[in-house]
Amino acid sequence: MRLRVGSSLMGLVTCSSIRAAIVALVLLSSAVASGQAGRPEGLYYKSWGVVVGIDDYLVAPKLSGAIADAKAMAEALRQLGFDEVVELYDKDASFRRFNHILNEYLPRRVGRQDRLVLFFSGHAGTTLDMHAKELGYLVPWDAQVTNASKAVTLDQLKEFSRRVMSKHTLFLLNAGVSGWEVTPPQQLSLEGRLSPEEDTEKRAVQILTAAGKGESLARKDGRGVFVQVLLSGLKGAADTDKNGWVMASELGAFVKQHVTEAAGGTQHPQFARLDGDGDTILIEGKKAFFKIRPEPKTDAERTAAAKEEYEEAFSLLQQQKSVQDALDHLNRAIKYSPAYGDAYVLKSFLFLERLPNIEEALAAAQLATKYAPTNPDSHYTLGLVLQRKGRFDEAEKALQQALAVNPNYSDVYLSLGDLYAEDMKDKNKAVEAYRRYLETGGTENKAKDYIDQAEASKPASKK
Domain map of the chain by residue range? Predict the structure, then answer.
């Protein structure tokens, strides 16, 4: 038994019926190439991390927990698939060594298609530049907090970002620091962008600090609140729109909100874009979900989001693209609106024909009849599933219910004829179903041939 598309599509009573019929045709076409899930090709050639943590300062006041925070961040970057993670702790993070990394090591090795994240946990300070503007700086292991002469200023970091060739550079500073020149950014939202490749070609230099100038850093359970929230975000919690991607802009918004709340309003992380109009990609999801929308809040917004996901799934199938991606979109549609019946119809088709799982197909079809009872395809699909399971009486009832909704649904008559002829061995009902199929515009010769053979086999007195 296979799904069929008759010649009377325009006679169907619902738009979703037409769509389901077209999908049936797509499902019967040549094998669909499956899209690659996971890491999309071409985003970054190589990912670099530099992690600095200083507790045992030579002359500055000693800290506690900075190295532990830095090591946790190093491990997080490795979990994200970073290829090279350079770690500098205590005396390895001297002024000379720090500058060697920034001025020689990274500029010589980082390429144009690379991503770079630099994390610093230690003392920071603020001074005034020659124009009496604030200038923030980081304090290396052998420098003083109150003396910027052996410090690494934020202007130096920005200058470094101009010399290093990475497309996307992100500074994560576990310190209360401010004072940098910011290139006026464009809107950070990715709404409407079509692919990760388009966005990754746009340069981005971004910075996220733990607090504002002079604010103390809250700690909980022996670890900085900023780092705890940051690590949570990098594990996926910052994916607030649940599309599988985490961008630096998302991470910044997530950290600002949750750190401020956790610290009782005494600590305010700062996020800014220093240059470019791109956005660093921290977690790479599926290409199909890269386009970002605001998370729907109202019932109307959730229904609209579900419809958009359904439309995307249908479009993927029409274009003979990844069936799994189409299923993912249908699941997202159902997540947004659990009563979106048409999504269950299409999901049942997929499990029946392209991702064979008869139990999943049955479950989806039953939900389709519950949430979309006026869509004849809900009952039609349920009938096909029940027929596949050998539950012929129930299949007959479901197909008859599809005809009760749309008495002119030609393909249902064809499937009903097949059920009577092949499974229930009821020649009279099969002939009647095939006749109705032809009367409603069906063109398959099988129906006419069956009727002709049935007529020919009748005794002469009954002809």
Answer: 9-36+295-453, 47-285
Question: CA 313 to CA 326: how far, in whole Å?
Answer: 4
pTM, full prediction: 0.59
Instruction: Name the class of domain 9-36+295-453.
Output: mainly alpha
Report how far residue 360's alpha carbon sits from residue 365's, in angstroms, rounded to the nearest whole number. 8
Work out the burial of residue 15: count CB atoms within 10 Å of its CB; fewer than 13 is exposed, 13-18 middle, 19 or more buried. exposed
Amino acid in position 460: A
H-run or E-run covering 21: helix 15-28
Q: Which helix (H) or strand (E) element contains residue 116?
A: strand 115-121
pLDDT per residue as tens, the chain (463 positions): 334 433 222 233 344 444 444 444 444 443 333 333 333 345 788 999 999 999 999 999 999 999 999 999 999 999 999 999 999 999 999 999 999 999 999 999 999 889 999 999 999 988 776 666 777 889 999 999 888 888 998 888 888 988 898 999 999 999 877 655 544 433 443 433 444 445 557 889 999 999 887 788 888 887 889 999 999 999 989 987 777 888 899 999 999 999 999 988 899 999 988 888 888 999 887 665 555 456 778 888 889 888 988 888 888 888 788 888 888 889 889 988 999 999 999 999 899 988 899 999 999 999 999 999 999 999 999 999 999 999 999 999 999 999 999 999 999 999 999 999 999 999 999 999 999 999 999 888 998 998 889 888 877 655 5
Of the candidates 151, 217, 148, 158, the one whose C-alpha atom is nearest the C-alpha of residue 183 is 158
User: What are the tokens at 187?
Assistant: 């809107």
Contact in structure between 206 and 171 (CB atoms under 8 Å): yes
Query: Topology of domain 47-285, per CATH?
Result: Rossmann fold (3.40.50)
Distance, CA of 103 to CA of 114 (rounded, Å):
17
